[in-house]
Amino acid sequence: MNQGPDKTNPADEPRLHALLLELDSPGALLTAAERVRDAGFTRWDTHTPYPVHGIDNAMGTRRTRLPWIVFVFGLVGCIGGLLLQWWTNATSGAAFAFVPTFGQGYNYLVSGKPEFSLPANIPIIFETTVLLAALAAVFGMLALNNLPRHHHPLFNAPRFRRVTADRFFIAIDAADPRFDADRARALLDSLGGLEVEEVYDAPGSARLPQWLVITIMIVVSLALLPPLLAAKARLSKSDRPRIHLIHDMDNQERFKAQQAHPLFADGRAMRPTIPNTIARDDTLPDPHLDAGRGEDGWATAYPPRLDITVDFVRHGQAQFNIFCASCHGIGGAGDGIIHQRALRLDEPGWIAPTVLVSDLVRERELGHIFNTIAAGIRSMPPHGDQIPPADRWAIVAYMRALELSQHAAREDVPPEKRTELQP
Amino acid sequence: MTTSADITSESRRLTSTGPLGPAAAIAGVAGLAVGVLFGLRDGWDVFFRSYLLNYTFVLSLALGALFFVLLQHITKAGWSVALRRLAELIAATLPLLAVLFLPLLIPVVRGMAGVYEWADPHAAGHDTTGLLAHKQPYLNVPFFIARCVIYFLVWVLLARHFLRQSVAQDATGDPRHTLAMQWWSAPGLLLYGLTVTFFAIDALMSLNPHWFSTIWGVYFFSGCLVGFFAFLALVVCGVQRSGRLARSITVEHYHDLGKLAFAFVVFWAYIAFSQYMLIWYANIPEETVWYRPRQGDGWWVGVSLLLLAGHFVAPFLALLSRWPKRRKGTLAVAGVWLLAMHWLDLYYIVIPRPAGHDHAAAPLHVSDVALFVGLGGLFLAALLRLLTRYPLIPERDPRLADSLAFENI
Questions:
Q1: Could you report the predicted ipTM of this complex, rounded to two decimals?
Q2: Do B281 and A122 touch (CB under 8 A)?
Q3: Do A122 and B273 count as a contact with CB atoms less than 8 A apart?
Q4: Are residues A210 and A303 in the same domain?
Q5: What gap in Å lies between CA B73 and CA B80, rounded to an integer?
Q6: Distances (CA, A) of B232 to B91, B94, B157, B265
Q7: Is residue B320 within 8 angstroms of chain A, CB to CB?
Q8: In sequence order, what are the residues at sequence separation of 6 or more whose Cβ sits closer than 8 angstroms to the Cβ of residue A379?
Q9: In which domain, by residue range, is A47 found?
Q10: Could you tell me which chain A residue has the CA closest to the CA of B405?
């Protein structure tokens, strides 16, 4: 429905808004609507309790422009989502120095992918496209229907209430350029409806009451306060602690390390370990197993607590390939991919990883190698926190197997397999 | 608006399909013969891979039809009743398709590593990863055959049940048939989802037994539905061209077929990309191994890009508007195009050999086309025969009036 410009009538006489025709069946409505359409009216509408098939044709309404709005917004979301990701992740401040720092992109490397990488961008593009298209569909539909509006003059007609139950209506707007009250009434009378009624604009002003205007202004002013406070906080400095609105479990009543405590005789909150005990599930310290120490100097044998089996060595192989091979190479030749990359980049100060199958390492004591894994050496970082002691011993065992495999003589091959060897 | 009275005056039975039926059958037999000749010349690995490709193509159309029938009943759909019999008849080709599946058991039973590597009894021994041995409890010949028996049993029984109930209603008009079909549609869909998922895993994913993708079943299913809606649009066009169902199937039904085809085009792209993106992002060799041959050389890169452009971008833009879906001509063109793209999708799935295997000399072999004509011809001949045996519309379905009066708002 469309409404003419809202003028206050000086004579305070109700102004005619529309002529309303009441019908009792969808079939009658369709026939009547065709007649109104053919009479050339443009500002008129039908009102029904439920969607009536064929009403679009009967009214001669053109198809909605909403799909185009949705399409354009979807396209904007699509391109905007792509630009957003390009700007934030694939541009750097250097290239766009004229942009203030907070608006500059930040090259963030994710998963070793290129900074601008379509497969990673598509989910975001998809979401922004759907988001803008859906918002455009909802709000575009409301806008095209002249919604929201808080009142409509048709509600002034008492019989119009049955539009949500069992009656069908045609309303010709008085603002229609072809509208002439007598001729329009004659047309509606000839359509065979139940009743034709004149609907008047509500008496009185269409302006909002003054108290409502004041209330809205107060609410809006109050709503501006929080953003203003936030803006002030961002720009000013304070040495007071921040306002702690929700405490959750931030400040708990408990004793912290190094604090005094009245309960214990020594006055300390921290309790020392009780002499000659160990914690539950802990084991007694074993310098051989934990540190590779022997009677004097490095241990030369495996800790007796470990069973050196084929599975144990296989486990060592897996650990070796995870932790060691990237530098020392799968075969222990000191040619891992990190080393190769460092050579290719001509990295200054790069120390080549030790060749693990060299005589130098072969002659090292087991405990010494074990300790090197745990503590690191030169540019090799310590791995003690990453690899538990038993796994470190497994790596040592596998290294011994690796060394043996590359210094094996023909006699080390079982006799029945020797025939398979190439000469 | 069409009413029930109008369609009594129109022809809704196809008494004969003219020379089309025998022609399809002859083309089918000839295509198979040409395929076998090339199999004798170039080896059976090539033959069976082509056979699998074209077999899954025709099977996917029938599976899509079965899903459509089940879906209409579980949603108590009114609009689709005028189209439902055609879908029921497409699904009724499943008994024939069950027979045509039997040749695919030959490479499994004979352990032809060129088709199903896992079926080769020596494969697990050569496999250094140990994965084939690990998957042996599932991927072994007797269990594979047992599963296939279950799949086809479920599909054939479902297709027959729904066609029989629907045809029985033509005679009696008893609404209890509708209720019976509705009752069976829920367990039917459950069985359908499980069987189609596992069939896709067994027949297609196991071509590379080292690889796995948890979305695979949905991927195959989404392709089935794209192919089916394209095919149904063409069948409806064909039936109307022969002068049947001229009034009962309206532009509104075409519009909805177009909408569903569009929806499943998007769904396919969504699923295909979901599979691709996770594998691309994680970049783990166990998973990327499937894409490696498909992005490794120029031909397959071309096929991948053609799928992206032709299976998603082009139909997405072409079917986005309202008018292409409401015109028979544009919808038929889209149908042919989508069927071609659906075939290409299966070609992309079936033909590339797993990484590390020898590639066939030519990526597109004569038998790929010959067996398309062969299996497509037999499928079409069976469908044409079914079309002449039953009314083309569920004549006394209680919701038929809804369907005839249906309008898109």
A1: 0.84
A2: no
A3: yes
A4: no
A5: 10
A6: 11, 16, 22, 15
A7: yes
A8: A350, A351
A9: 12-218
A10: A53
Inter-residue contact A35 to A9 (CB < 8 Å): no
Closest CA to A298 of A396, A203, A157: A396
Asked whether residue A210 falls in the same domain as residue A294, the answer is no
Contact B167, B153 (CB under 8 A): no
Shortest CA gap B274–chain A (Å): 9
How far lies B43's CA from each of B48, B52, B114, B123, B359, in Å? Answer: 9, 15, 10, 20, 13
Find, in chain A, the residue whose alpha carbon is nearest to that of B321. Answer: A67
Whole-model pTM: value is: 0.75
Residues A192 and A292 in one domain: no
State whether A212 and A358 are in the same domain. Answer: no
Q: Note whether B109 and B117 are within 8 A (CB).
A: no
Q: Which of A160, A187, A218 finishes a domain? A: A218
Q: What is the dihedral of CA A159, A164, A170, A175, to 10 degrees?
A: 80
Is B325 a residue whose pLDDT tops 60?
yes
User: Who among A53, A63, A120 is closest to B407 (CB)?
Assistant: A53
Q: Which among A23, A20, A19, A17 is positioned nearest to A5, based on CA atoms?
A: A17
Is residue B232 within 8 A of residue B354, CB to CB? The reply is no
Among residues 62-81 of chain A, which lie with CB inside 8 Å of chain B?
63, 67, 71
Q: State the sign of the Cα–Cα–Cα–Cα dihedral B117, B123, B128, B130.
A: positive
Please state, for a pLDDT cut of 90, what percent of chain B lies above it.
81
A148 preceded by a cis bond (ω within 30 of 0): yes
What does the pLDDT read at residue A37?
92
* Chain A partners within 8 Å of B283 (Cβ): 111-112
User: Are residues A293 and A149 part of one domain?
Assistant: no
Number of residues that this document lists for chain A: 423
Query: Which residues on neighbouring strands pair with residue A293, listed in sequence order?
Result: A298
Which chain B residue's Cα is nearest to A111?
B281
User: For the residues A322-346, what does the mean pLDDT come to?
Assistant: 91
**Number of domains comprising chain A:** 2
Taking all residues of chain A, what is their mean pLDDT, rounded to a whole number?
Answer: 87
Enumerate residues 6+ apart whose C-beta is below 8 A from B349: B204, B207
The per-residue pLDDT of chain B, averaged, comes to: 92
Among A218, A237, A265, the domain boundary falls at A218
